[in-house]
Write a structure and sequence with these properties.
Blueprint lengths: L20 H8 L3 E5 L2 E4 L1 H20 L3 E2 L5 E3 H7 L11 E3 L5 E4 L4 H11 L8 E10 L14 E11 L2 H21 L4 E5 L8 E9 L5 E6 L5 E3 L20 E4 L6 H8 L7 E8 L2 E8 L6 H7 L5 E3 L2 H8 L16 E5 L8 E4 L5 E6 L9 E3 L17 E16 L1 H5 L3 E3 L5 E3 L1 E8 H11 L1 E2 L2 E2 L10 E5 L5 H16 L4 E3 L6 H11 L3 E5 L7 E6 L5 E5 L3 H12 L1
Parallel strand pairs: 3-7, 15-17, 17-20, 27-28, 27-29
Antiparallel strand pairs: 1-2, 4-6, 5-6, 7-8, 8-24, 9-10, 10-21, 11-12, 11-21, 13-19, 14-15, 14-16, 18-19, 21-24, 22-23, 25-26, 29-30, 30-31
Family: Belongs to the class-II aminoacyl-tRNA synthetase family. ProS type 1 subfamily.
Keywords: Aminoacyl-tRNA synthetase, ATP-binding, Cytoplasm, Ligase, Nucleotide-binding, Protein biosynthesis
EC number: 6.1.1.15
């Protein structure tokens, strides 16, 4: 491609609203342009990288027997109402009415659509298992689009769905897709981890996220410092390895704590450690109010509460609801006089508190020397808190450390969540109708592009891995008005293309400094400069990743490129 014939609008300055490196560089290097908040156009360079990510995804999914299709982005509301998600998915689902006032949604995801297709076409166990996928633009009305392609309202996604007659078959496909994802992100050159995750609005169980390690990641990964264990912080299991003090239980007393509300204030006022305090928070679990307890130095994990109580929704009670039910404000509630009013569920660490501190359910007062089971009865104890750095790893190997991550892929075992709701069945060997068992597997294709840009850059610009670079080579004649340079540049351009290299030739009438700065910014693997020694057939090669320079005669160029690309792969 001649650079004059394409659109690569580079920028010298960092755009004011671009906060992270990938967003800044993709804008500055002319890969993308913002059209509205969270909505971007992929310019020619960006489209080429996007296509290469898609090709890797297709190759790996095709290799495990998945078949590609394309479903509509515009989905009738009836399908979402069948699954029950029309009213529960939330404001991120973009909804609209057509001229006949029929309700539709712009596809945020396609479980309902694919289930309806398979329901209508698959009638026998003989047609199972089956895995289908698509690569398509998705739409979600993010409340706060940010970080460029990492969190947008319109994005490119690969979503795959598998259909089975047995849990064992689902397990097999899950493992195959899991390995395909590992291959995809490895081929993209990413530093990533597969972590145990929560299924969220998707439903189902047994799910993993593929997280690219990055300081700008919005998710926290809990991982072992001595094993391969990794989990999203919301899902990391906390081992019950606590012990109780041997001190005697003392009599409970009510003490005045004027103006003291938070755990930090209580601990400071009473001169005790936070771990000897009992934190009490009122939650609404589905339609029931439940008092959830944790140790004062721990944070209650609402995802764990939801899963532990097998609930559809969990939310913190409002200040008004807390006052009405508990008779006091949030800072004074506690479990000791609440048992006759409300169900109490406690984190397992609370069981080991001895002579602890808790709210008195009376404004401005707390109770000291509170002991579980003597002074209050929890309905059940369980793992309800966020894991912390330094906690034992759940696999028994090492301790937990934290890292930030960007989610680029997610795999789910959905089970019969959608097939039950939408009556998607098959006839088994005995002619009996059975619900189809499903799996779901997503990759953020445009997000993966941004994650690569986030990991592959330096102070001069992008540094693309060779498998994803929009072009293999940047051919730069210093002066196209020089006959020797122009002739050699055109000769090399044709020769390299004949040998299956993707070449971007900078034939613009720009100063050498501008061409070199743009070349570094764009970040192609190798730059070939045609300059003063063109009359001798000599060019200069520069490896973008290492900065290594080579003077090469045109007759040796192809063999030299082969050797260099071997070191880059």
């Amino acid at each position: 491609m001649k650079q004059r014939n394409t659109l690569i609008p580079t920028l010298k300055e960092i755009p004011a609203d671009a906060d992270i490196k990938s967003h800044q560089l993709l804008l500055r290097a002319g890969y993308i342009r913002q059209n509205a908040s969270g909505i971007y156009s992929f310019l020619p360079l960006g489209k080429r990288v996007l296509k290469k990510v898609e090709e890797i995804v297709r190759e790996e999914l095709d290799a495990v027997g998945a078949a590609e299709l394309l479903m509509p982005a515009l989905q009738p509301s009836e399908l979402w109402k069948e699954s029950g998600r029309w009213g529960t998915y939330g404001p991120e689902l973009m909804r609209m009415n057509d001229r006949h006032d029929r309700e539709f949604a712009l596809g945020a995801t396609h479980e309902e659509m694919i289930t309806s297709i398979v329901r209508d076409e698959i009638k026998s166990y003989k047609r199972l298992p089956l895995t289908l996928y698509q690569i398509q633009t998705k739409y979600r009305d993010e409340k706060r689009p940010r970080f460029g392609l990492l969190r947008g309202r319109e994005f490119v996604m690969k979503d795959a769905y598998s259909f089975h007659s047995s849990a064992e078959s689902l397990d097999d496909t899950y493992e195959q897709i899991f390995q395909a994802y590992t291959n995809i992100f490895t081929r993209c050159g990413l530093n990533f981890r597969a972590v145990i995750a929560d299924s969220g609005a998707m439903g189902g169980k047994d799910t993993h996220e593929f997280m690219v390690l990055s300081e700008v990641g919005e998710d926290t990964i809990a991982y072992s410092d001595q094993s391969t264990y990794a989990a999203n912080i919301e899902m990391a299991e906390v081992i019950d390895s606590y012990s109780s003090s041997n001190e005697d239980m003392r009599d409970t007393e009510k003490v005045s704590t004027p103006g003291v509300k938070t755990i930090e204030e209580v601990a400071s006022f009473l001169e005790v450690s936070r771990e000897n305090c009992i934190k009490s928070l009122l939650f609404k679990v589905d339609e029931e109010f439940v008092l959830i307890l944790s140790r004062g130095d721990h944070e209650i994990n609402d995802i764990k509460v939801k899963n532990f109580m097998n609930a559809e929704s969990v939310e913190l009670a409002s200040a008004e609801e807390t006052k009405e039910i508990m008779g006091c404000t949030v800072g004074s509630i506690g479990p000791c006089t609440a048992g006759d009013k409300i169900k109490i569920v406690a984190d397992q660490a609370v069981k080991y508190v001895r002579n602890g501190i808790a709210g008195a359910n009376e404004e401005g007062y707390h109770l000291v020397n509170v002991n579980p089971e003597r002074d209050f009865q929890a309905a059940v104890f369980g793992d309800l808190r966020f894991i912390q750095e330094g906690d034992p790893s759940p696999d028994g190997k090492g301790t937990i450390s934290f890292a930030k991550g960007i989610e680029v892929g997610h795999v789910f075992k959905l089970g019969t969540r959608y097939s039950d709701a939408m009556n998607s069945t098959y006839l088994d060997e005995n002619g009996r109708a059975q619900s189809i068992i499903m799996g779901c597997y997503g990759i953020g294709v445009s997000r993966t592009l941004a994650a690569v840009a986030e990991q592959y850059n330096d102070d001069r610009g992008l540094v693309w891995p060779s498998d994803l670079s929009p072009y293999d080579l940047h051919l730069i004649p210093i002066n196209m008005k020089d006959e020797h340079q122009a002739n050699l540049a055109n000769e090399l351009y044709e020769e390299l293309r004949k040998n299956r290299y993707d070449v971007l030739m900078d034939d613009r009438a720009e100063r050498p400094g501008v061409k070199f700065a743009d070349s570094d910014l764009i970040g192609l693997p190798i730059r070939i400069t045609v300059g003063k020694k063109a009359s001798e057939g000599i060019v200069e090669l520069k490896v973008r990743k290492t900065g290594d320079m080579h003077e090469v005669h045109k007759d040796d160029l192809l063999s030299t490129l082969i050797d260099i690309f071997k070191t880059l792969s």
